[in-house]
Amino acid sequence: MSDNRYMNAITQGVYVIGSKLGDKKNLMTAAWLTQISSRPNQILVAVASSHYTAEILQKEPLFSISVLAKGQEEEAVACGRISGRKTDKTKQEFCGEDADGLPYIKDAAAYLCCEVKAVFQAGDHHLFAAEVLSGETCGREPMRYDADKFF
Ligand SMILES: Cc1cc2nc3c(=O)[nH]c(=O)nc-3n(C[C@H](O)[C@H](O)[C@H](O)COP(=O)(O)O)c2cc1C
Q1: Cα of 80 to ligand 1 centre, how many Å?
Q2: Residue whose CB lies within 8 A of the most ligand 1 atoms, among 10, 28, 45, for a mutation test
Q3: pLDDT tens-digit map of 85-134
Q4: Which of 12, 40, 118, 138 is most buried as measured by Cβ atoms within 10 A of its Cβ?
Q5: How far is the CA of 15 from the centre of ligand 1 (A)?
Q6: What is the pTM of this model?
Q7: What is the distance between the alpha carbons of residues 57 and 1, in angstroms, rounded to a whole number?
Q8: Where are the domains of the chain?
Q9: What are phi and psi of 14, to 5 degrees?
């Protein structure tokens, strides 16, 4: 096979990573995220090394994950097309801020608060292994990633 369709067949959800560095806050859409441990709960998220989020997570270990719900495509696109280096994506009406000052997406299916424990380089991405410190669900059905819908 010469195209990437077999990679797009790997099933994923759609998430938004909320981070902050000093008074700068950022939101980034990510589909390449998975659980890697249960005791304790840990996840792994792949962030392109050039992204602002990769820079922030190497300096500030605390970040949020909003598990987007079905119907939140607009939020996914708004946080997944421009870099936080150029614009403040947290100034949008669907964005909230938690007690730690981390931005998140309102009305998502679930929220997690995470702390980076290890960082690896894999090709053009940084892999952040993070412990889930807390979380809550909101009863909505999570969105499933469909590459054809976004790219
Ligand atoms: C649906 C969707 C899924 C995405 N998944 C990822 C991903 O898993 N990893 C990644 O590095 N970028 C992913 N992106 C691209 C980033 O969200 C995008 O480049 C973003 O503007 C980077 O923001 P930042 O520079 O503020 O960190 C995705 C974008 C969309 C729309």
Answers
A1: 5
A2: 28
A3: 989 999 999 999 999 999 999 999 999 999 999 999 999 999 999 999 99
A4: 12
A5: 10
A6: 0.98
A7: 35
A8: 12-137
A9: -125, 130
